[in-house]
User: Which sequence fits this backbone?
């Protein structure tokens, strides 16, 4: 079954990111402007901030690699766009362009999309938008909205039932349900075994154990502005506050405020997608070097041959005798160097160096040259 995406959505895309513009980290589905807006990690708008225009009440957004998938609640299906704003060729999905599609989540291969009109959740292939499961994949809801998926479990905010339901993402089998203490749950996010639920009417976020659905903190974050969309990136929880037109960011472990007004001046922001913080490149491991024989000795000779070994990452071994500059030893993993000794105390330093210039800890040999 292939689901059609209206030409309206594809034709309405325009690009606003000139060459050399900083890559966005935050994308916002703005229902009030029927667009996707792009922002830097610091919350500054990029270009005109309308990355994609001409949408129809965009409610949900999710990022898979460099592709943004957007639900059009007013009709228009699910749109697929690059992070530069271009429509993705060959993607055709969206519940036959029906109205009511709302939340969206992904496990990387499948898109799980809720529909508040049909009270179902359906599954589509990320690659081309065709049905991944015979529709309806999940049913029996009362206006389902937010969707999240992790560890092969789908979490659905069954808003008008006041529940959050969990299902096996492969079979659709029902798992534990949160059926008490929720007030019109709209958004859900899951990360690190923790389930975050946004309460639209009471403007707060509650925290549950994602495996057991047991409450951890009913008032994990409070004082928000009608929150809906939630996303976790690293140890940051991003919150789309529809009522106040803001995006806030909080510590995902403690709930402490990082920046309650990271982005302001929005018109009905419903959901956000966040480019994960880049994983820091680990510093290259320092090479190792070893000098064979004694570290202190006395000799009457004017020359002394040092020998030793270096680790596999070493590109060369260098030796410094007294105040002389470092000189390259002969060999690497097994090396030797002839040191010319001055009368008296000679302090000799040995180091290994990688091709990238990373230095080993210095090995030291002290030789006392005495008169014959």
Assistant:
């Amino acid at each position: 079954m292939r689901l059609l995406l209206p030409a309206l959505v594809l034709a309405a895309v325009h690009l606003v990111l000139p060459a050399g513009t900083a890559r966005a980290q935050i994308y916002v589905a703005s229902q009030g402007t029927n667009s996707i807006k792009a922002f830097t990690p610091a919350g500054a708008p990029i270009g005109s901030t309308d990355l994609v225009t001409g949408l129809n009440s965009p409610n949900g957004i999710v990022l898979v690699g460099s592709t943004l998938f957007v639900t059009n609640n007013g009709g228009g299906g699910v749109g697929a766009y690059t992070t530069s704003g271009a429509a993705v060729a060959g993607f055709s999905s969206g519940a036959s362009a029906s109205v009511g599609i709302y939340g969206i989540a992904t496990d990387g291969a499948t898109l799980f999309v809720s529909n508040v009109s049909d009270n179902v959740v359906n599954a589509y292939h990320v690659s081309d938008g065709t049905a991944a499961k015979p529709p309806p994949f999940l049913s029996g809801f009362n206006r389902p909205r937010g969707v999240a998926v992790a560890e092969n479990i789908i979490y659905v905010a069954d808003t008008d039932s006041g529940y959050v339901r969990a299902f096996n993402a492969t079979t659709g089998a029902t798992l534990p349900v949160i059926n008490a203490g929720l007030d019109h749950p709209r958004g859900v996010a899951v990360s690190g075994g923790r389930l975050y639920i946004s309460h639209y009417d009471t403007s707060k976020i509650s925290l549950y154990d994602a495996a057991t659905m047991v409450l951890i903190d009913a008032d994990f974050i409070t004082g928000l502005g009608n929150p809906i969309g939630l996303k976790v990136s690293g140890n940051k929880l991003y919150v789309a506050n529809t009522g106040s037109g803001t995006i806030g960011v909080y510590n995902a472990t403690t709930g402490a405020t990082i920046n309650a007004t990271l982005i302001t001046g929005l018109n009905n922001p419903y959901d956000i997608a966040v480019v994960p913080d880049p994983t820091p490149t680990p510093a290259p491991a320092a090479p190792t070097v070893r000098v064979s024989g004694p570290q202190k000795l006395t000799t009457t000779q004017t020359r002394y041959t040092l020998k030793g070994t270096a680790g596999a990452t070493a590109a060369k071994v260098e030796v410094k005798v007294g105040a002389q500059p470092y000189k390259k030893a002969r060999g690497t993993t097994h090396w030797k160097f002839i040191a010319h000794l001055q009368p008296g105390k000679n302090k000799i330093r040995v180091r290994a160096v990688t091709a990238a210039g990373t230095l080993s800890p210095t090995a030291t040999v002290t030789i006392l040259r005495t008169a014959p």
